[in-house]
Amino acid sequence: MTDDNRPIALVLDTSAIAAFVAGSMHVHEPILLADEAGEAVAVPVACLVAAVRRDPGIDLTELMHHPQVVIVSPDRSDDDLLLDWTLYYDGREDLAAAAVLSYRQGRCVVLTDEPDAYMISGRRPRWVVPIDGSW
Fold first, then answer.
1. Tens digits of per-residue pLDDT, 9-23?
2. Closest CA to 97 of 19, 45, 20
3. Does residue 113 contact residue 18 with C-beta atoms inside 8 Å?
4. Who's near 97: CB < 8 A, 6+ residues apart?
5. What is the mean pLDDT of residues 69-89?
6. Which ranges of 6-44 would DSSP assign to H, the alpha helix?
């Protein structure tokens, strides 16, 4: 839940942030659907940092000021879980942050252009949705 009690329906990972900034309707549309449902879209801080590291010139203004988007800092109680997932994902703290946030929220999904990066035991989890408009 967010501070204003909206449930989180969607988590944007680093690749989804980049796609949003590039104007992808496959990212903008799910955000609009969340708005219609009265739900929030979460962006983990680690994913914002990773997006800026990938492209220092990225303009996050629209994303940061979008009314449905909430920027989520990691909960200190999740430090061990984040470390475990970061190690599992070969040091990708951004993937771990998105996965842990989705896990903690229960029914939300991670929107990504890197669905295979989230593989667990050789399978893509149900909570990972590729950016392709198929959902």
1. 999 999 999 999 999
2. 45
3. yes
4. 44, 45, 46, 47, 74, 82
5. 92
6. 14-21, 25-36
